[in-house]
Design goal:
About 40% of the residues lie in helices and about 20% in strands. The chain is α/β, with parallel strands linked by helices. It has a single domain, classed as Rossmann fold (3-Layer(aba) Sandwich). Helix 4 packs across helix 6. The mean pLDDT is about 90. Bound molecules: zinc ion. Zinc ion binds next to helix 2.
Length: about 220
């Protein structure tokens, strides 16, 4: 365990920054009180255009959008702590804690994960699992790098995700209710394809949750 002194020194030289407004925050905080105050009290619940329902604490815009971009592309892993808390709040809000046995996440391709150094959805999933005391398992593997979904139109997005995920540890998915974590849900095509593969592994019910839903109001 780190000592209070080390915590103090670290926070003096490398203070944590609020993921949303970038102000320095105390070491025991995951976001500043002002941003916490402004957070949506009703999480988002949306039917994606791929027909997959998804819940999320945020819609993908403004400071939340910038913070997720920092998290993914500038490797600001600290942001995950705040997202994980909000995901837990969303799970509590919708009373779904007992509706899943195991947590999994949308995988990255090996190339992308090596480039980035981490999988953003996996990082959040692990924190959510720890906090809810639920097992987190990789149940999917991305077998090739596809084009970025946001550069494509709807029909292209469906094609772009076809056959890119494979089941792993299928024995853990069989007969289980699963919470599937993604970072940003847009059209839902990625989630839809992940659900299809998990059902092929014998998964029972799947609940999709993201940090943010694009286009959610
Ligand atoms: Zn803030």
């Amino acid at each position: 365990m780190k000592s209070k002194f080390i915590d103090f020194m670290l926070s003096a030289f490398f203070p944590n920054k609020c993921p949303y407004c970038k102000k320095n925050i105390k070491p025991d905080m995951t976001e500043c009180p002002e941003c916490l105050e402004k957070m949506p009290t009703v999480p988002k619940k949306a039917m994606t255009s791929a027909g997959i329902p998804c819940i999320a604490p945020f819609s993908y815009d403004g400071e939340v959008r910038n913070s997720i971009i920092d998290f993914k592309f500038n490797s600001i892993a600290f942001n995950a702590e705040s997202y994980a808390k909000r995901l837990c709040f969303t799970i509590e809000y919708y009373h779904i804690l007992d509706e899943f046995d195991i947590i999994t996440f949308v995988p990255l391709s090996k190339i992308r994960k090596n480039e980035r150094g981490f999988n953003q959805s996996e990082t959040v999933a692990k924190l959510v699992g720890e906090s809810l005391d639920k097992p987190v398992m990789p149940l999917l593997k991305k077998i090739r790098q596809n084009k970025n979904q946001h550069d494509l139109n709807f029909a292209e997005r469906i094609e772009n995700v076809k056959g890119i995920y494979m089941p792993v540890h299928a024995e853990y998915a069989k007969g289980k209710n699963i919470l599937l974590i993604d970072d940003i849900a847009t059209t839902g095509n990625t989630l839809s394809e992940c659900c299809r593969v998990l059902h092929e592994s014998g998964a029972n019910n799947i609940i999709c949750i993201a940090i943010a839903i694009a286009g959610a109001v």
